Description:
This protein has 118 residues and is mainly beta. Helix content is 11%, strand content 37%. Strand 5 and strand 6 (82-85) form a beta hairpin. The termini are far apart. The model has no long low-confidence stretch (mean pLDDT 90).
Amino acid sequence: MNWVKFERSDMLRDRADTPEVSIWKKGTIAFTKAAEEQYGIKQYRYASLYFDPDTKKIGIKLTNDRSRPKDVFKITQGKSNLVITAPPFFKKFKLSTEKTKRYEVLEEDDMLVIKLAS
């Protein structure tokens, strides 16, 4: 016999070591384990979210300060990763969450940054 092995072209890149976030349909930001570890997210309880409409970037400033509760979102442990549930943020800036998407997360200045547009 002459067996030919099937290989998926869409699974070529290994995401295990890449710090990324997923933005889920319901307006939740979920961090990969690599992002959690690289940026020490577990040591924080809250996040302030920012949006730059010119560059289409989301900024995430991690904090343990809850002195201004209306300015922060709680970081919680989901089933398998840390998440920030933030539908009001996405609604305010009219950011689409119709489809779950994955983005690379980078560090700029003192924030984690998600670039929505390329």
